[in-house]
Amino acid sequence: MLKTAQLALLALSSLVSLASGTLYESVEQLPTRNVSDYYDFIVVGGGAGGSAVANRLTEDPSTKVLLLEAGSSDFDNLDIEVPSFAPRLTGTQFDWNFTTLNQAGLNGRSIDYARGFVLGGSTAINIMAYCRGSKDDWDRWAKVTGDEGWSWESMQPYMRKIENPTPPADHRNTTGEFNPSIHGVGDYNSGDTIGIGWTQATISNGQRVNAATAYLVPVMSRSNLDIVVNTQATKILKTGSEDGKAVFRAVQFTDSVNGPLYTLNASKEVILSAGAIKTPHLLPDVGQNLQDHPLTTISWTVNSTNTLDNGRTNATFAAELLQQWNDTRTGDLTLGPGNQLGWLRLPDNATIFRNTTDPSAGPTSAHYEYIATDSFVSFSEAFPSTGNFFTMFSNLVSPSSRGNISLNSTSPFAHPLIQPNMLSTEFDIFTMREAIKAVRRFMAAQAWSGWILEETSPSSAAQTDAEIEAYIRDTCFTVNHVTCTVPMGKDGEASSGSGALNSDLTVKGTVGLRVVDASAFPFIPAAHTQVPTYILAERASDIIKGVYQRESLPESLSFAVAHSSEVK
C-alpha cells in the first residue's frame, strides 16, 4: 500500500498543556481591562492566518494580542487528530456548514462549502496537503501588487521558516520521495510543480498538525496572548479619522445570537483573519473575485483485497486500525486521503487557446491536478458495501471562473450568499473534460494491467465530449479552496480597480485595519491553499512588526475598553 511523505510545521516542535490562563472558553472569562492595560492587536479568526500572526506578534513580550475565534477549542478532538478521518469532518460541529447558491455550471445544484469552525480553522478539517504553489504563482502576486516582496525568491525565507520535515509513520527510507535540499528536481515544492510525486502533508508522528497545534499550543503560556473561543466578531467599528481616512480599531463581538454585545479597542490594529467567506462578511463593499478549485472523481475496481476500503466496510478491522493508531500512531489511519499528487498542463496547442487566454500563472503552474487513493471516493454516489477500488481525483487548479460573496441579511449570524460560479467559463469545462481523458489514458498504461479491472458507473458511460461534460456537471464538487474575496492590489490605486488591499495587506482607504488570510490572495495558486496562507501570514507578521518598530503611536488616541450589552 502506498504511504505518504509527511511534513510538519516548525512550531510543532514542542506541545504544552492547555491548562493556562490565556485560553478562555467564553467572553465572560476574559479579564476586564482599563485604559492602561489595552491590546495592541485584535486578531479575528484562529485559522492559518490568525494563529500564525498571533504567535509571531507576541514574540515581542511588550506586544499584547487578543485572538477571537468563533468556534470551539476542541482542536485535539480524535476526529481532527486522526489523518484519515478528515473526510468525516464536513457537516459536523467543526464546520460552519455553509452552502452555495445553486450553480448553473453544476446543473443547478447547490453544494456544501466546508470551512473550519474550531480553533485552527480550516487547517483542522482539510486534507492536510502541503503545497507551496509554483514560482509563477508567487511571481504573479508580486507583479499584480507591484511588490517584489511577494515573489518566489523573496518569499523563500518564509517558506523555509514554517517547515520541519518529519518522516512518515512507517519510518521508511524516503529517498526519491522528498528532496530535503529544498526541495529540488522531482519535488513539486521546488517552484516547478509539473509532474507526479509523493504527497507531502501537515502530519507529524502519525497525527494531523493544524494551526492551533503548530502556532498556538506552544505559546499558550505567553502572558501577552489572550485567546477567546466560542466568540463571534459581529462588526468592525470606526473609531475616528486620520488624514482623511477612517480609522477602524474596534471590534464588536458576542458569544451567541441573543447574547450581550462587547466592544474592545486595539491600540494599533485590528487584523481580520476570518477566512475568505467570513472576512468579506465583516467588511463593506468587498467579496468579489472569489476563486476556487472544482473537482470530480473516477473510480475503478481493482484485483486486490487490500485497499483502504476495508476500513470502511469491515467494522472489526476499523476498530483494530483505531486501536493501532491509539497505541502507536501507526497504520492506515496515519494516511491523508491521497498518496500521490500530479500537477499537469494542457498542451500548448490545445484548441481552447485559440480564442482564450491561459488563466494559469505560467509554465510552472498546473492547469489540473490528480490525487490518487486506493479507495472508493465519490461526491455523488454512495459508498459501495463491498469491493475494493482505486480513485483518481481530477481538480481544476487554474480556473478562470469568478464568483462572489454577498450579504444575505443584516444579521451577522446569517450565512452570506456564496456564489462561486463554478465551471462558468469555456476554459474551465474544457480543462476538466481534458483532465478526465488524460487520467483515463494514464490508468490504461500497461503498468496497471492485472490490478486495475474496470471503471465504475456512472463515469464509465461517459465517453463522448458531451457525455463527459454532463458527468462533470452532475458530479463536480469543490476542493474547498475558496480564496481571493478581499484581494491585494497595487498600493494607492482605487480598490474597485486594483484590489481591496494594499500590498502590505492594509485595507485601502482605512487606518488600523489589515487582512491576513486567504481572502487576500489576488489569484488562487495552482496548489492546495493552506500552506500559501501560512506563508502569507509569516510575511505579514514581519511587515506589521516593521511598521511598529519604526513608528510610535499617536499620543492623542484613547484605548478604552467597553464590556457592555450594547454598542454605544
- What is the beta-strand fraction? 15-25%
Total number of strands? 26
Distance between the termini: 62 Å
Query: What's the CATH H-level superfamily name?
Result: Glucose Oxidase, domain 3
Name of the level-1 CATH class:
Alpha Beta
Helix content: 10-25%
* Biggest sheet details: 10 strands, mixed
Identify the overall geometry.
Answer: globular
Radius of gyration: 23 Å
The unreliable regions are: 1-21, 552-568
Count of DSSP H/I helices: 12
Any guess at the CATH architecture? 2-Layer Sandwich
Kindly report the average pLDDT value: 90
What structural category do the secondary elements indicate?
Answer: alpha+beta
CATH-derived topology: Glucose Oxidase, domain 3
Keywords: FAD, Flavoprotein, Signal
Domain Glucose-methanol-choline oxidoreductase C-terminal: 399-537
Domain Glucose-methanol-choline oxidoreductase N-terminal: 39-294
Family: Belongs to the GMC oxidoreductase family.
Provide an overview of this structure.
This is Alcohol oxidase. By secondary structure, the protein is an alpha+beta fold. It has a single domain (7-104, 111-559), classed as Glucose Oxidase, domain 3. Helices cover 21% and strands 21% of the residues. It is built from twelve helices and 26 strands. The chain has helices at residues 48-57, 78-81, 135-145, 156-161, 211-216, 275-282, 310-313, 315-328, 426-443, 465-475, 495-498, 530-550; strands spanning 7-9, 23-24, 39-44, 65-68, 98-99, 112-113, 163-165, 195-198, 203-204, 207-208, 225-228, 232-242, 245-254, 262-272, 288-290, 294-302, 340-344, 368-373, 389-396, 403-406, 417-419, 452-455, 477-478, 510-511, 513-515, 562-563. The strands form six sheets. Strands 2, 3, 4, 11, 12, 13, 14, 24, 25 and 26 form a ten-stranded mixed β-sheet that branches. Strands 8, 16, 17, 18, 19, 22 and 23 form a seven-stranded antiparallel β-sheet that branches. The chain has a three-stranded antiparallel β-sheet with strand order 15-20-21, covered by helices on one side. The protein starts with 6 loop residues before the first strand and ends in a 5-residue tail after the last strand. 52% of the residues are buried. Mean pLDDT is 90; it is low at 1-21 and 552-568.
